[in-house]
Amino acid sequence: VQLVESGGGSVQAGGSLRLSCAASGIIFSINGMGWYRQGPGKQRELVAVITRGGNTDHADSVKGRFTISRDNAKNTVYLQMNSLKPEDTAVYYCNADVGHVRYWGLGTQVTVSS
């Protein structure tokens, strides 16, 4: 499975961005997908996850501001990010679970200025 993220960039606080992650390869076997992020000097942390059936979970720090969604027909997972804050600045990584194996994309940078 190959994952390619897009949609990152620089935005002012309060702005919005939409990240996309397109999957290719053995895509029929993908179960859960999600987004993680790693800020400067921080560990990678969970942002949001979504099951193949569409059940979602979001980190407390982004609830009410970020929304994860998935288009199984396009093999793509999205992260709509609204009301962005400087502390959301990070590299955002997409992941996909195939059985017991977790695949990762290379990440996309999101920078939020105050």
Description:
The protein has 114 residues and is mainly β. It has strands at residues 2-6, 9-12, 17-24, 33-38, 45-50, 56-58, 66-71, 76-81, 90-98, 101-104, 108-113. The strands form 2 sheets. Strands 2, 4, 5, 6, 9, 10 and 11 form a 7-stranded mixed β-sheet that branches. Strand 9 and strand 10 (101-104) form a beta hairpin.
List keywords for this structure.
7-stranded mixed β-sheet, 11 strands, 4-stranded antiparallel β-sheet, 114 residues, mainly beta, single chain, 0% helix
Question: Could you give a short description of this structure?
Answer:
The protein has no helices and eleven strands. The protein has 114 residues and is mainly beta.
How are the secondary structure elements laid out?
Layout: E1 2-6, E2 9-12, E3 17-24, E4 33-38, E5 45-50, E6 56-58, E7 66-71, E8 76-81, E9 90-98, E10 101-104, E11 108-113
Parallel strand pairs: 2-11
Antiparallel strand pairs: 1-3, 3-8, 4-5, 4-9, 5-6, 7-8, 9-10, 9-11
Low-confidence stretches: none
Q: What is the approximate shape?
A: globular
Task: Look at the helices and sheets and give the structural class.
Answer: mainly beta
- Beta-strand percentage range: over 45%
Question: Helix proportion of residues, in percent?
Answer: under 10%
Give the helices and strands as they follow along the chain: EEEEEEEEEEE
Largest sheet: 7 strands, mixed
Termini separation (Å)? Answer: 37 Å
Rounded radius of gyration (Å): 13 Å
